[in-house]
Amino acid sequence: MKLALLTASLVLLGGTMTACGDDGEVSDDTVSTSEFCDAITKVQEAYAEVNPEEPTEDQVRGVKDAVEELADQGLPEDVSDEARDGLELIAAEIADVPDDASAEDLEKAGEGFSEEDDAKSEAFDQYVEDTCADSGSTPEAPSTDSTE
């Protein structure tokens, strides 16, 4: 599920960046690693609430709001330009997913990423993993295994 990868990226899943002008722009503000990882945890928690088979508008909106907060707050000083670009791409992709997205719509999110864009989103994923792993905030996509 491509969207699960995006959401795990920041941990992401469908959204809108109202305060960011709906373009995924990340604030130039600098935040502490703790603040950043707390925001990642909020995205992760919102994503964990999403029913992967039949997402509700409230569930998708919850993820959108969490991603918006992450982008609006800014990033730690040590983030690379490539990872920052990755967050902007992911946030913009999330902005394009409608609140009433179906599970199929969510699976298609991010399919249009170029190789270069994939590398940038992966740089953000790696930054999240490296930065937040010790805080217990490393995002994981929820399982869609119906046997659980």
Mind explaining what this structure looks like?
The protein has helices at residues 2-9, 33-48, 57-73, 81-95, 103-108, 115-132. It is mostly helical and 148 residues long. It has one domain. Helix 3 packs antiparallel against helix 4 (81-95). The two termini are 18 Å apart.
The chain-level mean pLDDT equals: 78
Form type: globular
Beta-strand portion reads under 5%
Point out poorly predicted stretches.
Answer: 1-22, 138-148
Distance between the termini: 18 Å
Keywords: Signal
Region (Disordered): 94-148
Signal peptide: 1-21
Biased composition (Polar residues): 134-148
Question: How are the SSEs placed, and which strands pair?
Answer:
Blueprint: H1 2-9, H2 33-48, H3 57-73, H4 81-95, H5 103-108, H6 115-132
Helix pairs in contact: 2-3, 3-4, 4-6
Summarize the structure.
Residues 1-21 form the signal peptide. This protein is mainly alpha-helical and 148 residues long.
